[in-house]
Amino acid sequence: MAATLIDGKAFAAKVRGQVAEHVARLKEQNGITPGLAVVLVGEDPASQVYVRSKGKQTVEVGMNSYEHKLEADTSEADLLALIDQLNNDASVHGILVQLPLPKHLDEDLVINSIAPEKDVDGFHISNVGLLGTGQKSMVPCTPLGCLMMLRDHHGSLSGMDAVVIGRSNIVGKPMAQLLLGDSCTVTIAHSRTEDLPDVVRRADIVVAAVGRPEMVPGDWIKEGATVIDVGINRIERDGKNVLVGDVDFASAAERAGAITPVPGGVGPMTIACLLANTVTACCRANNLAEPEGLTA
Ligand code: NDP
User: Fold this and answer.
1) Is 98 an annotated catalytic residue?
2) Ligand 1 cavity residues, CB under 6 Å
3) Domain boundary, last residue among 116, 132, 152
4) Is the N or C terminus of the chain more exposed, i.e. has fewer CB atoms within 10 Å?
């Protein structure tokens, strides 16, 4: 393997350490403990695992974690009433509603009912607009984690040619906005893109967020490019269940200058950035200086 490995697990631990230091300062100097409320509706097993992990890491960095578990048949009115209560609770600085929601609930309506300044997932339409217009916003966690790793590896991203494969609202589009904000020349590719290999071959930075196992082979990668693999795909290989990304790691690592592995790349950064967003939201709510390096 020629490429430098971008170790998301180690980077996430560093981010959690920075968050923990800032939380300790907030407690000591201002008597404030940041609080994150996570709302889970129903019993989706994967969501339960995520929520448990978020709660555990929130407590580990010294913040308050408030978990609200609601029955799968909770009415929209009851969910909105809980969000309203959390919006008005001064001890709650971040609110996250775990997605996906059961079918009878309108996700857009629910997300847009969270106070934008507490929307630590960055999915509220106001935050989307603020990010799109280059203003201070809450930034979606997964793309924020990718940006942090890219900045750490390259310093300045200015003038680099970046391709984001995938145009979802939670990863692809905000990722492209962040790269544009850092003065990359950005292409967003998707399922209708013509000659995707050629588009990817031009890129100094490739962010793959597709959800198709090992779709990007090494020979699409420009020599020395940086590859950020957001994909998390569970496949069976040699009779075992394994996690792979959207990039064929072995062949891409032969050509890339740097690459994130799956698992251990982007994945661990997502919750670390959720914690970073919560401490940022807490500082903004109290007109205090934001931690450096933890926002876009
Ligand atoms: P979506 O399914 O919402 O979006 C996938 C995107 O990929 C779409 O824009 C789609 O294009 C595009 N696409 C699909 N097939 C192709 C193709 N053959 N060529 C080019 N583009 C294609 O996925 P998400 O953005 O939610 O997630 C993407 C991946 O990232 C998944 O594996 C997911 O598990 C992972 N993920 C990881 C996270 C982490 O913490 N590491 C967090 C969030 C997601 P079109 O719009 O035209 O359909």
Assistant:
1) yes
2) 142, 165-168, 170-172, 189-193, 196, 209-212, 230-233, 266-267, 270
3) 116
4) N
